[in-house]
Design brief:
By secondary structure, this protein is an alpha/beta fold. The protein has 2 domains: 126 residues, Udp-n-acetylmuramoylalanyl-d-glutamate--2,6- Diaminopimelate Ligase, Chain: A, domain 1, CATH 3.40.1390.30; 123 residues, NIF3 (NGG1p interacting factor 3)-like (Udp-n-acetylmuramoylalanyl-d-glutamate--2,6- Diaminopimelate Ligase, Chain: A, domain 1), CATH 3.40.1390.30. 32% of the residues lie in helices and 25% in strands. The protein contains 9 helices and 11 strands. The strands form 2 sheets. It has a 6-stranded mixed β-sheet, with helices on both faces. It has a 5-stranded mixed β-sheet with strand order 1-4-3-2-11. Helix 7 links the parallel strand 8 and strand 9. The longest helix is centred in the C-terminal third of the chain and has 17 residues. It is globular. The termini are far apart.
Length: 275
């Protein structure tokens, strides 16, 4: 039988916790990783509806991108839905592990998956972060690379909507921009604060989530096109982690079942004005 600890040890050679940002809380979130894994679920988020799905599917290990315990609980009053979720996980002996900014930074991780979706080639890290502690290769958060063909802003906007499967997105468009887009920077999650690195990398456009109002103005002032398709595009992690674990199953002879969560945890919807 394969334990959670065995899986974690293998994963941390791929995306070391040492690559995580200092403010982040990666790694074991709740449960006992020494227990054998019978069924593992991959997911972007761990929310009450995800936990209920895991219980229904008899999952005993949840591997997530977003941590569930950024802030310590001040009490364990289960009238609070977050605390009830912790209680449900413990009572059903479900272990939760999260790989967040370490997976964002690791080579072959989140930002490479997003760059793959965009079809970018000749990619390099957007925000340098030193070396991988195992491979000693350079690592960094975000990617910058080339589209196969240059696009107009309108075409690139529609392209991003299509490849990320979003109903809408926010576009930051400087009035002075009159060129096409071919060199693109992408950073999953909330990457607005790194727009200067996109400029320094010579990006024609920057794709990231959660761009703030004032950062949008700063981007316009600097002549940078930016597209905000939302934080939830990181949901690619659900399928790509499952694929990665299935590859490792073959080489390590792991026998547990792997399933993907398909519940949409995006808290936002686009509401279009009716004519």
């Amino acid at each position: 039988m394969t334990t959670g600890t065995e899986l974690i040890n293998r994963f941390e050679q791929f995306a070391s916790p040492q690559l995580a940002e200092s403010w982040d809380h990666v790694g074991l979130q709740i449960g006992n990783p020494d227990r054998p894994i019978q069924k593992l679920m991959t997911t972007l988020d761990v929310r009450p509806e995800i936990v209920q799905e895991a219980i229904n599917q008899q999952v005993d290990f949840i591997f997530a991108h977003h941590p569930i315990m950024f802030k310590p609980a001040t009490d364990l009053d289960v009238r609070n839905p977050q605390n009830q979720m912790y209680a449900d996980l413990l009572s059903h002996q479900i272990t939760v592990y999260a790989a967040h900014t370490n997976l964002d930074t690791a080579n072959g991780g989140m930002n490479d998956w997003l760059a793959d979706q965009l079809g970018l080639t000749n990619c390099e890290p957007l925000v340098a972060a030193g070396q991988d502690p195992f491979t000693k290769q350079p690592v960094g958060m975000g990617r910058v690379g080339q589209l196969p063909n240059a696009m107009t802003i309108n075409d690139f906007t529609r392209y991003c909507q299509s490849v990320f499967g979003v109903a809408g997105l926010r576009l930051v468009k400087p009035a002075s921009f009159n060129s096409t887009i071919q060199r693109v920077a992408v950073l999953g999650g909330a990457g607005g604060s790194f727009y200067q690195q996109a400029l320094q990398a010579g990006a024609d456009a920057y794709v990231t989530g959660d761009i703030s109002y004032h950062t949008g103005h700063d981007m316009i002032a600097n002549g940078l096109v930016a597209l905000d398709p939302g934080h939830h595009i990181e949901a690619v992690v659900t399928h790509r982690l499952a694929e990665l674990f299935k590859q490792w199953q073959l080489s390590h002879h792991w026998k547990f079942e792997i399933i993907e969560n398909h519940i949409n945890t995006d808290p936002f919807e686009f509401i279009c004005k009716e004519n």
